[in-house]
Predict the structure of Thiamine pyrophosphate enzyme TPP-binding domain-containing protein.
Amino acid sequence: MRRDRQFRADEFPLAPSVEPVVPRLDPVAGRPSRGNGGQRHLGSLSDFHDRIVRTSEPRYKTAKIVMLGTRGLYMKANYQDLGRYQDVDLDISGDAEASLPILIEQVKRGIDEGRKAAFDARGKKLAAAKLATVEQAKLDATIGWDASPITTARLCAELYSQIKDEDWSLVGTSIGLARPHRLWNFTKPYQWNGLAGGGGVGYTLPASLGAALANKRHGRLTVAIGGDGDFMFVPSTLWTAAHHQIPMLYIVHNNRAYHQEYMYLQAMAARLGRGITNADIGTTIKDPLVDYATVAKGFGVYGEGPVSDPNALAPALKRAIAMVKSGQPALLDVVMDQR
Ligand SMILES: Cc1ncc(C[n+]2csc(CCOP(=O)(O)OP(=O)(O)O)c2C)c(N)n1
Ligand SMILES: [Mg+2]
């Protein structure tokens, strides 16, 4: 989608301001500090701002970008336009699953023999590279296999080994959790439904339940992994799951923190020379720890955990999956590595 005009900074709260923001002095060096968004020089001073500033650089400078799907509609209806996604040359609004096979056929028809041979050769190279990547990912997943907190790799490997022969659908992952996409074999469009468009915490639990509802009539085994912080936003989703009997296995990636935020605060505090010892204030979820299984039970949902012994994981997964296969939602609280 093309933006038809540039936005002024005052229309967009996250855009770099053209005016200097209050300069702060570095407590150690006594000079203006470096901010997250880089420095702009204002005479002898540079300003500082504690805000995240994104810039947009087209990733593919020479390619023609065609977008097929409903994301364009969403972006046009939303402030997300300001998220500065890649501009596209041709934006086709439609159901990608229905339209893509026809589009692929048309593209294939337009390919001559020489190009076809080149594509086949490239395909073979990509297949070999993919195989090597999966083998490496499997090897990586064995690191810290018996550790507690349980590694995210072990959780993903154990979960997949129990669902791989089912008609599974992964409808949510916690922040930065790319392991399912490295370790699992995704072959159907509904096996992954993407991430939150706006990156809002509190998305994963309710959005996963929506996807689980869509999967229900097809009898698919819906699984999701969501952050503990994410869970804190709309836990009442579980009541909806129980009330409407929507089968879904929801695994809480319990790292006892809004960890993304925790890391960011540590980074900022370190950069400003303030020390990182207070970065846990408001960013960790402890004192008291939350018992997510009890919360689930309170909403009428099967809940188990916290599971922190890696050897207890497989049997707990088995019980929770059995519950989901009987048509009910189930929550499993797993104490895991931060990432
Ligand atoms: C609605 C909303 N509020 C705050 C944020 C800022 N934020 C980004 S990640 C994050 C922490 C999320 O915690 P959790 O879901 O437990 O994931 P973790 O980083 O611990 O893996 C926060 C608060 C956001 N993205 N969206
Ligand atoms: Mg967390």
Summary: The pocket of magnesium ion (ligand 2) is lined by residues 227-229, 255, 257-259 (CB under 6 Å).
